[in-house]
Amino acid sequence: MGRVLSGYGCRAPYTRHMGFPADQFTPRGDPARSWRRKRLRLSLFSLLVLGGLLLLACGGGEVAPGAVHVSEVDNDIGPVTVDFIDRALERAEDNEAVLWILELDTPGGQLSATDDITQRIIEARVPVVVFVSPAGARAASAGTFITMSGHVAVMAPSTQIGAATPIAGGGDDIEGSLGQKITNDAVADIQGIARLRQRNADWAEDAVRNAVSVTAEEAVELNVVDFIARDLRELLALLDGREVVLAGFVNDEAAGPTTVLHTAGAEVVRSDMNLFENILDVIADPNIAFFLVSLGGLALLIELFSPGLVGPGVVGVIMLVFGFFALDVLDTNVAGIVLLVLAFILFATEIFVSGFGVFGIAGIVSLILGGLLLISDSPDGGGEVSIWVLVIVASVIIAVLGSLWVVMIRDRKRARDLPTRTARMIGRTGVVLGAIDPEGTVQVASEMWSARSTGGPIAEGVEIRVTGMEGFCMIVAPVSAEAGEGLPGAPASDQALLDAPPIAELPSD
After folding, report:
1. Which of 65, 202, 233, 336 could serve as 96's disulfide partner, Cβ 3.0–4.6 Å?
2. CA 121, CA 124: separation in Å to the nearest integer?
3. Do 241 and 261 touch, CB atoms closer than 8 A?
4. Burial of 194 (0-12, 13-18, 19+ CB in 10 A)
5. Cα separation of 334 and 148, whole Å?
């Protein structure tokens, strides 16, 4: 990880990295360098293939009208769930589906996401059935709002619904006036939904204020849901011939025409989360998003410090792309993102300008503050970046930056000492790594150098001695005449002639 010094005085296309073993540096035209270029092309091709697969996974083909569309949500309710439900419901509407069934199993989620989902279901152009399933599932907290918003609400045996009291993103109670405001708003919301679907508004209020929860059987008795079904097949059988009012009810009177459901023999079409939505659902977490953005930026710094490695750059770009995708769906604070960007600008300044640690310390402070401010502090913000994640990421960055700084200082010192070092190379012996004809590469003192022979070709593996320097290019000759004899037509070097025994004098006439 140092600066690349071109071989002045030689036409051979070789370079030398200061301070690295010779076997890591090879000619520009050799197979290793060619492999690095192939690796770069392969990485770019992999990114294109990944993007293509994600695009294909995001698409949904058209189906014949009259089908039953079924989707599943079995995790926390968040922004990704909102986008998925909107996409699945829109697909059902565009394909003139008989109805759309949402199989629900959730412990809760964000209030803002819940409001978006219930509003989308209420405005749906096809009947919506919310089915709390399979057995053992629950529609807790946000799931209560979603279940009661469906035109038909159904639960499987051994399921539960309720416990809809709003809490903060970290799981704590919301105290004071803010807590009262949020609770009263949630009560008004769920009561309006219950009356629109002619369900028990009093129980809905109790579920929000007192966090009550009931089983499937109790929910049917209390008019919280419509009926119980063991599985999807039984659900479709019980729905056949049922009448629903798409517009809902106002003052216990239908606000629009009724629609009769015909589900017997209807085609069932699954519309579940695609690959991209599943990935985004996993990474749409403050801690994961901060981790991806921070370490992705660090990988790019490593690539900038040592261009040509390819790996850190590709990995860094991928991590940053997914990290910013995750931040896009979270309730982020612009100030937090600006501080993160500023942190990496300061890190780069510390590496390349050498601010004696001032820029690095400022970058760490900016990184920690950015992590703390990254997610909005609203009760619905979806949590915050853990202090332990901040400590771990900051420690990793300090360690990496420290290593880069040490390498850079070492390389600068070696660059200053380079003229003296090249002069000391004269007279040393080494070995030919790439055949010299008349130019090639040699290894001398565990380093790889560009080399040129003034005498003639020298085969790979022959021991040589440095007889001179032209810039960063070595002038070499075989160590002994025996080494030169192995090369047809290769003359003995000057050193070999000096080492040869004296020629006997011929007798005079």
Report:
1. 65
2. 5
3. yes
4. buried
5. 35
The 3-class SS string of 189-242 reads: HHHHHHHHCCCCHHHHHHHHHCCCEEEHHHHHHCCCCCEECCCHHHHHHHHCCC
What residue type is assigned to position 147 of the chain? T
Q: Could you tell me the pLDDT band of residue 398, with boundaries at 50, 70 and 90?
A: confident
175 backbone dihedrals φ, ψ, rounded to 5°: -90, 165
Cβ-proximal residues to 266 (8 Å cutoff; 6+ apart), any chain = 66, 67, 68, 98, 236
pTM: 0.66
Task: Provide the strand spans (E) within 340-479.
Answer: 429-434, 439-444, 447-453, 463-470, 473-478
Radius of gyration of the chain (CA): 36
Average pLDDT over residues 263-269: 90
What does the angle CA 16 – CA 17 – CA 20 come to, to the nearest 5 degrees?
Answer: 120
At residue 8, what is the residue type?
Y
pLDDT band (50, 70, 90) for residue 329: confident
Distance CA 487, CA 489 (A): 6
Phi/psi zone of residue 308: left (φ > 0), alpha (ψ -120 to 50 degrees), beta?
left
User: 468 vs 95, 452, 457, 503, CA distance in Å?
Assistant: 81, 10, 17, 28
- DSSP run (H or E) holding 254: strand 253-254
491-509 pLDDT, tens per residue? 444 444 445 454 444 444 4
State the sign of the Cα–Cα–Cα–Cα dihedral 444, 448, 454, 456: positive
CB 284 within 8 A of CB 80: yes
Which amino acid does the sequence have at 187? V
Strand duo 99-104 + 128-132: pairing: parallel
CB 359 within 8 A of CB 353: yes
Q: Are 373 and 339 in contact (CB under 8 A)?
A: yes
3-state secondary structure of 168: coil
Report which of residues 26 and 81 the model is more confident about.
Answer: 81
3-state secondary structure of 174: coil
- Name all domains of the chain by residue range, CATH numbers in brackets: 65-273 (3.90.226.10), 285-416 (no CATH), 427-499 (2.40.50.140)
Across the beta sheet with 160-162, what order do the strands follow?
138-140, 160-162, 213-215
> Which residue matches tokens 């007279």?
427
